[in-house]
Design brief:
CATH superfamily of one domain: Ferrous iron transport protein A (FeoA)
CATH topology of one domain: SH3 type barrels
Strand content: 15-25%
Order of helices and strands: HHHEEHHHEEHHEEEHE
Number of helices: 9
Radius of gyration: 19 Å
Shape: globular
Strand order of the largest sheet: 3-8-4-5-6-7
Largest sheet: 6 strands, antiparallel
């Protein structure tokens, strides 16, 4: 009997299923307007694609958009390859976070299963991408007591756990976080919170200001040494 071969889909189908998966992963309501914003396309274009994806049995659409079992399988495959590619591009080739994220968006559509398996072995079977987001199928288990940075009081320490995908799509933010060493595994201290909600944290002896949109999404472990 021939080995199972996952069905092939047009890259546009992969992009949409990936976006739906990541929005759900970030606890964002998966409505068509959100998908349009994430992919930077028009709402009519999203509506048309939803009809096509429904026809392929990849999504169901009512008030929100949901992946079917086939859609989830496709999304997880694309996300897994994207995050492995990010690991390879940063850990092996030494690319910046931001460039790796952009390049991985191209690689995810062309990596074959044998190449994926080889990359995974070479990288030591990582469980997260460089930004701390879980690699589907890796057996990742989230630590207990995960919080967001906006819950840490002034004077308290934290360890960065994860930069969600929603922040990866915010213009210039990956560059800011990388330049500030605010990376998964880094420890810091909240040193001030302004009346307007801006949080100042200190990482490696340098302060960085973050707005509420960012601090409400960066996942951390509080009180880390």
């Amino acid at each position: 009997m021939a080995p199972y071969q996952a069905p092939e889909y047009h890259p546009a189908f992969e992009e949409y299923c990936e976006a739906i998966f990541e929005l759900h992963e970030d606890d964002v309501d998966v409505i068509q307007a959100r998908i349009a914003d994430r992919l930077d396309v028009s709402r009519p274009a999203v509506s048309e694609m939803m009809r096509r994806l429904e026809g392929q049995g990849l999504v169901t659409v009512d008030r929100t958009v949901r992946l079917t079992a086939d859609g989830l399988e496709l999304a997880e495959r694309v996300v897994r390859r994207h995050r492995l590619a990010e690991r390879f591009l940063t850990d092996v080739l030494g690319l910046s976070w931001a460039l790796a994220h952009t390049e991985a968006g191209k690689w995810e559509h062309v990596i074959s299963e044998p190449v994926e398996e080889a990359m995974n072995r070479l990288l030591g079977e990582p469980t997260t991408c460089p930004h701390g987001n879980p690699i589907p199928g890796s057996g990742y288990e989230a630590p207990d007591s995960v919080r967001t940075l906006d819950t840490v009081a002034v004077g308290h320490r934290f360890r960065v756990l994860r930069i969600p995908e929603e922040l990866e799509f915010t213009d210039g933010l990956l560059e800011l976080l990388e330049a500030s060493a605010l990376l998964p595994g880094a420890t810091g201290t909240v040193i001030a919170v302004s009346a307007g909600g801006t949080t100042t944290v200190e990482v490696q002896g340098a302060p960085v200001d973050l707005d509420t949109f960012v601090t409400a999404r960066i996942q951390i472990i509080a009180g880390a040494a």
